Amino acid sequence: xxxxxxxxxxxxxxxxxxxxxxxxxxxxxxxxxxxxxxxxxxxxxxxxxxxxxxxxxxxxxxxxxxxxxxxxxxxxxxxxxxxxxxxxxxxxxxxxxxxxxxxxxxxxxxxxxxxxxxxxxxxxxxxxxxxxxxxxxxxxxxxxxxxxxxxxxxxxxxxxxxxxxxxxxxxxxxxxxxxxxxxxxxxxxxxxxxxxxxxxxxxxxxxxxxxxxxxxxxxxxxxxxxxxxxxxxxxxxxxxxxxxxxxxxxxxxxxxxxxxxxxxxxxxxxxxxxxxxxxxxxxxxxxxxxxxxxxxxxxxxxxxxxxxxxxxxxxxxxxxxxxxxxxxxxxxxxxxxxxxxxxxxxxxxxxxxxxxxxxxxxxxxxxxxxxxxxxxxxxxxxxxxxxxxxxxxxxxxxxxxxxxxxxxxxxxxxxxx
Length: 417
Description:
mainly alpha; 15 helices
């Protein structure tokens, strides 16, 4: 016992020393990546606790306060939700604190970029405190997370649409034949991948001898949507392009696969049920990578966006010219350089809000969108709730993309950037 205590103390000391060393090297430019790293670490911590924390939580009286001890899976989900809640509160608090920050003269700008030792300490304290909360608080958070995760999925789709349109515009603006050939080649490859993968889904999720009408409907709908994207994008009256249509088609096929692979293991039409654990973990890894990439992209994209990602513009320096240059011309120029407020390059509130919503979404990934209905504690992200969340996300993605194409025609009196 004494040896274990000493080992734990040594590990904690080394960890704190490492965190302090890392925190001291974080610069203003690397702050966004540091937030991403903290978020990624929270995902790893959630995954680890999901695997090892159940026996410990069973011994905590305010958590295991039931007449009959719940299943191992319940404690696993409870551990994930408590870490997620602490992570959510950390980023939500920062999102509220950063409301209205417009320039770098605001003291809160320094809070956003600096003080990393204190931030890591606050984050760790919040995570620990979540394990002292009663179960009812965690249950409420679980319910709210399902709605927050839906919002994050919507934001994820918007980010994807923004990415593919930016990619397409960047290559079109080069106005060279080789870039047009590259656009066409990638579009063709994406469409071949979409329909080829759809054929594979027919083999995996429509086994012979079973009535798998629902799975066939999901797969056929994916193929029809992919075809519709190309037809609408290439219509003469629509200002569309084949590249975004092809990339969205691949993404919809991926969502269809994740939905079908999340079907219960005892469902005869799930042809992957013999490898359900491996498929479940593989789906989780892809989901986590997609989540992290979405968060990282939103963080980077926020630095150059001029739309809803950016804060209201700061007053222009020209409006203060008479005040700053009312004295001696030379001293006025020096004073202007010292006092001119540099506007922040992205919305800090939106930045932290993305992380808060992603914390909710990652908890739903690790718990299968429910704390009690999965077939086995060894499976992750499995169940009919997950299936319909994935499929509805696919349909919402298709609807949003089609709307971006037809909106200028439907709302002809409005200007679209």
